[in-house]
């Protein structure tokens, strides 16, 4: 049977201590011994090298043997009952006799092994009544203190009395895990550490993580020699996670750090707030010191008490702040912003706008204008900050109590060190910003934090100087609390909604004015149209009358003059036709006639009967069975009249017009639309046709593809047809090939839209 130790021998120094695997050191402190017992069969798989000092059995005698084989069935039953009762990691320790020696043990599960850590009960014990009295006294602190700091001070004093340590500190972290001695009880002859700060490098990240898992850590003698843990060499990567261990050996870097401070023993109790490491109760003794289980339990209870009070006391403080900020918010929220030019000017002057987040100044940037009140930067600086924040936050929100960390070039931090920014709209960088001025802070460090690592001829090591070092922190405001930022966000959101309503109102007003202008313009156009169709027709009729009289006189008129007068008369007639078509086009959109069911077969028959006999005699019109459509009869009559007339008009010389009017058997969609079906009417002819590239432009008003000498017309007819189809919520399309005729397709909705 081959045995090896699992000591982690990776070289640890100041350059890699942040990555040190302190949870798997492979060794323990010597004030107890450790057994790793397989969960499935209770075979001893790990054993510390010092087992013989406590039970006269060497690790080589224990490894690979079952727990009952070594210690007997009674001991095994005691262990399994303890595990089955769910007492692991509880305040109830395991009392067990091993090889005739009484031990108090902690038991926890690590991977597939139960870790049993045994300490003899021979340690001097404090009377249970004394522990009870100290705990009872602490309970009186809860009702007898006003401030949280005062409570922490009494906790430090009580913990020192019950444990007997030379120094007890309540140590709290900031957001960057720099530490501050928040409260302290210390032996009279020792230098106090109260108020001192320590850099985050003093407690690296992996150590902070372990503090959240294992809430009590004890080092009984800083100068201890680590005891290796041995195991059967049956797996190359075999190790043991000691994150929850009470005997776990600590980092040599941490030992050196404590030695530099002159500390002989320590007790550390974690203070957890909202699942995060809020701080520590750190106990220092300047000589070796161990504690009985009862005292450790009482000390840990102090930590639980103070942790509960962190939540309660801070919640009370936050509640009071939230109550005041909410009152300010409610007072402001009943105010309604208007579209008046001075609305933001009046808003920023309201005291409640500053009270809702306890700010010293506020500015609103809206549509290029700055409105501000209180302690604010200059306008050009506000413009600079506004533009930067809009880009940085992507028109969102931003909070900081040290703006210079984000904008180093911003130098006027005295007026605006801390800000709360909320965008009000994407356009024009509209926003609201609250400001807090600089609050100069003096921080007393236990040594220069920039020299937490020293380098000498021996290499790098933890700092050995804890001499007072003062730092003045500038360009930083008082931190914004959560109730303050929440209330500011709620008000900004409310303000954003009101601004959107203002913008909508402004748009509505703009469209209302445009609508009024459009009505006025349409009225003027109707007057012009009236003049065009009535007043202008009067001189045209006179021109036609006078020209006709001249041509009917008895005296002889030269032939050239007669030709000129006839052309003048024809031009006047064309102009009169154009004016009548324009009148039809403009009147079409103002019709109020109601839709009704129209029989197209009867409608087309009525149209053909009313046409000039000279046209119908030489034209073949074939009408198939057509569906009924919903429409305005007189407009549909005009529509089909125009289309039939066009088919007859645009025919090649010597060709008899042939027109076919048909409809598919079932309704169709238009341009792949899926929500509407249309009855389609196709009007095809054998006319001259046109190039398909003009298929859309021919429906524009006054568009002609041929000269007036070739084919008569005003260029309004097809535009009129398109307008009629639009009034019927339908479409008209044209498909044509030069010399082969044209197909006009009319799309009428099956159901009126």
Strand content: 15-25%
Helix content: 25-40%
Structural class, please? alpha+beta
CATH topology name of the domain at 591-749:
Heat Shock Protein 90
What is the overall pLDDT average?
81
Number of strands: 30
Helix tally equals: 19
Rg result: 48 Å
Corresponding CATH architecture of the domain at 591-749: 2-Layer Sandwich
Given this structure, which CATH class of the domain at 591-749 is correct? Alpha Beta
Oligomer: single chain
Low-confidence stretches: 457-466
The CATH superfamily label of the domain at 591-749 reads: Histidine kinase-like ATPase, C-terminal domain
Describe the structure.
The protein is α+β, with helices and mostly antiparallel strands and 753 residues long. Among the domains are: 118 residues, PAS domain (Beta-Lactamase, 2-Layer Sandwich); 138 residues, Beta-Lactamase, CATH 3.30.450; 159 residues, Histidine kinase-like ATPase, C-terminal domain (Heat Shock Protein 90, 2-Layer Sandwich). Helices cover 38% and strands 23% of the residues. It has 19 helices and 30 strands. The strands form six sheets. Strands 1, 2, 3, 4, 5, 6, 7 and 12 form an eight-stranded antiparallel beta sheet that branches. Helix 5 packs parallel to helix 9 and helix 15 packs parallel to helix 19. The longest helix is centred in the last third of the chain and has 54 residues. About 1% of the residues have low confidence. It is an enzyme of class 2 (transferase). Its EC number is 2.7.13.3. This is histidine kinase. Pfam families: GAF (PF01590), HATPase_c (PF02518), PAS_2 (PF08446), PHY (PF00360). InterPro entries: GAF, GAF-like_dom_sf, HATPase_C_sf, HATPase_dom, His_kinase_dom, HisK_dim/P_dom, HisK_dim/P_sf, PAS-like_dom_sf.
